[in-house]
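Throughout our pipeline, every protein is held as a single compact record rather than as scattered files. The record that follows is passed on verbatim for readers who wish to inspect the format.
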Amino acid sequence: MSLLKKLLVAATAAALGSLAIALPAQADTVSVSPPGANDWSCVPSAAHPYPVILVPGTFESMAKNWSTMSPVLKQAGYCVFALDYGQYNGVDASGPIAQSAQQLAPFVDAVLASTKATKVDLVGHSQGGMMPRYYLGFLGGAKKVHQLIGIAPSNHGTHGVIVPGPDGLPALTSADPSACPACADQTAGSAFLQKLNSIGDTVRGPSYTVISTTHDEVVTPYQSQALSGSPSQVTNTVIQDKCPADPIEHDQSPNDPVVQQLVLEALSVPNGPADPAYQPNCAG
């Protein structure tokens, strides 16, 4: 990046305010699947009848977000799929979230058609754990989804955090929709979140599992990630309630062996969300 461009970006960031989240360099235009994902010849087994779709978080590609989770699920015997979505100004998962949900819908249909499964399980990180709720509640997805597992999901928005931007520059503000519509949508109290949660935290049909970390520095406070609902439909798990010494934060949470165990346990439940009494191996 040229010095002039650095100065312009820095000046823009300073002018936009203090509620901020980092914008990365532009994403590659060619989608690359994470290891183990998007084998369109995969046939679900009787033990694992629901294909798993991995939904990345803001600014993330599927290849980066799911590089360790995807092969773990594949090795466990699941048909695993993943997608990129919401590209805005060349950056993945940064466009308006309602539009991103409209991209998830046909991907689910394609997976169902390919695998001949009756439903899918969705595993999403950050925005990817919240955005599918729009698909479930407003785009007819509830009848096609068995369970939604959210890892550090932005279910009720965030109050924001200042983190370094690319090349050490100040970050662009999440409150400016022209810079990152998805960031503005995930700001606590946004019009998008008001609509999303106007019908309640859950809809009839799918089960919901939320996995949060007390060390989350992006979706804050971390308690806002939890969903309200009957224990027969919703399980909210805080990692440190299971493994107090686990230091995992927001960005790397899908790579945490404890999180991967929690996801596998949730996926193993035939009907309903994760077992709240399940205890993972804290040593990984």
